[in-house]
Structure formats: C-alpha cells, structure tokens
Amino acid sequence: MADVSLAVDVAVPARVAYDQWSRFEEFPEFMPTVLSFEHPDETHLSWTLLDSTGREQRMHAEITEQVPGERISWRSTDGGFAGIVTFRPTGARSCRVTLQHSTLPEGDRGQFGDEPGLEKELTRVNLESFKKHMESTWPPPE
Questions:
Q1: Count of Cβ atoms closer than 10 Å to residue 63 Cβ
Q2: Per-residue pLDDT tens over the stretch 71-114
Q3: pLDDT band at 68 (very low <50, low <70, confident <90, very high)
Q4: How many of the other CB atoms lie within 10 Å of CB of 98?
Q5: What separation in angstroms does the CA of 123 have from each of 5, 22, 37, 58, 139?
Q6: Which residues contact 17 (CB under 8 A, 6 or more apart)?
Q7: How many helices (H) and strands (E) does the chain have?
Q8: 18: domain CATH number?
Q9: Does 87 map to a domain?
Q10: Sign of the C-alpha dihedral, residues 29, 31, 36, 42?
Q11: Which residues form the domain of 113?
C-alpha cells in the first residue's frame, strides 16, 4: 500500500481552511495538479489530475465522512484509493491541515503508487499552494 501523509500550517482559522477545501470545484484555481473538478451531488466527486508521471488521470470518489470544520474523508468508487484531510486549530487564527491518502491493496496503483516519492512531492506542492492561496485571500477585503 502506498501512503502519503503531509501537513502544512496555515495562518487562517481552521473553519476558514475547511470551508475553502470543501469548495472542491475551486481546486483547479490553486492546486497545480488538479486540472478539472466536478461535484455531481453531495457525496460524489470526479476530477482530472496530473499523476506522478505527468499523465492525466480521471478519478471518481465518494465522501465517506464530512465533519464541518474538522475533516473530510473519501474513497474511490472503484476501491483503488482513500484519503482524509483534517483541519486542527493551532491558534485563534491558524491551523494545521493534514492530508493523507493511500492506494488500497485492491486498487490500480495509477495516481498513488508507481513513484511514491513523486506522489509525496505532488501532495506537498498542492498543500503549499493551498496555504499560499488561503493566506493571500484571508481575511477578505472589507
């Protein structure tokens, strides 16, 4: 099983970070490996990503748990991967965002496995992009 777990400290309240993350359709605006995103209903997600080899991959998942302000968990609809993102306050105006994802034993390695070091780097780039986006847009102008 290929596992990636990384965290980034963001200078915004946890609820603000969670609220932005849960607007999945905005990922392509600030995450360089997310090319497109669709949210067909409340629990299903589909996106096109650049994988660790630079190829486009289409992925489909369902949200398995969503606790507002705290965490979102998902699992691919074909059983290939799973993940969770958590938002933990580190102060009144700061939080730690931790992103974990795994290729499940029955899954196609695709996005999450042939190059675990590259996958970790892509995750780091996306988290750093999220941090930069959040800190440059919060607080919103009055």
A1: 17
A2: 999 999 987 789 999 999 999 999 999 999 987 665 554 544 45
A3: very high
A4: 16
A5: 9, 17, 17, 17, 25
A6: 10, 87, 95, 97, 130, 134
A7: 3, 7
A8: 3.30.530.20
A9: yes
A10: negative
A11: 3-23+64-137
pTM passes above 0.85: yes
CA atoms lying within 13 Å on the CB side of residue 67? 9
What tokens appear for 40 in the block?
């067909």
pLDDT of residue 109: 46
Name residue 52's amino acid. Answer: S
Structural domain count of the chain:
1
Give mean pLDDT, residues 45-49. Answer: 90
Q: What is the pLDDT of residues 8-26, one digit of tens each?
A: 999 999 999 999 999 999 9
118: tokens are 């590259």
Sheet of strand 34-38: strand arrangement: 3-10, 94-103, 81-91, 71-76, 56-67, 44-50, 34-38
